Request: fold
Amino acid sequence: MPEIEILLPGFSINTDQATLGLCTVTLVRGEKLTVVDVGHFGRRSMLVDTLRAHGLEPEDIGRVILTHAHWDHSQNTDLFPNAEIVISKRELEYSRNPRAGDYATAKYFADTLAGHDVVEVAGETQIEEGIGTMDTPGHTAGHHSVLVQTSEGLVCLGGDAVSDAGAVRRGLPAFVFWSVEEAQASLKKIFDASSVIYPGHDRPFKVTGDEIEYLVDAPTIKISGFLDATRDMVSVELGLPPKFTPRINPDALPDAQRPAGLQV
Ligand SMILES: [Zn+2]
Reply:
């Protein structure tokens, strides 16, 4: 049965100076080693290091599935010389003439796949036992998502059709470049199919009724650089501190809850 591991965590964090584009990159261990979304050049060395930490070289990867053609999900396909590239037929067509305003799709994207076996899919497919795709358009015209039957149930790798857990409450992914109606329908389709979601730019989570439960702890992101050559490097670390619990003076507790022996 296939199993999923996160190679690079996804973030919904950007700056006022640039879009960071840090998408979730996952490894699916099945009949083949499959990487779902490959990240952008800025994460390339980190991706290689992480694969090696898993005992793998890029040459070991037999398949790459791209949820869509956006630069932050697709730039590193050439890192995997032995991988077939699975992408939706509609997305490949769309990428050659992306909608004006879709600043994240490079018109030359399809050319970057030269030298690979490209498997164009449509509708609901089975890629191998326990791994399939389904169309989830809206974020882009041909976005599709990956369904993996794991030992812990059916998991959806939702790419940017489910950019982040907040999509559950919004009913929309964070960005819609193609169709709001299709994006809403795709979200519903994903939540109907699976309650365990690996979003494109957030941690994996589970939906039970109205509750969102993250399945892994929040990663941190450290931003550093030189703002002024005469001073030291500056850095800032973003992350979630431990959950806050109120500090209560024992005297403030009702008598029944006051620790035994406490003299007031
Ligand atoms: Zn995208």
Remarks:
- The chain has two domains: 3-214, 221-257.
- Residues 68, 70, 104, 139, 160 surround zinc ion (CB under 6 Å).
- The chain has a mean pLDDT of 94.
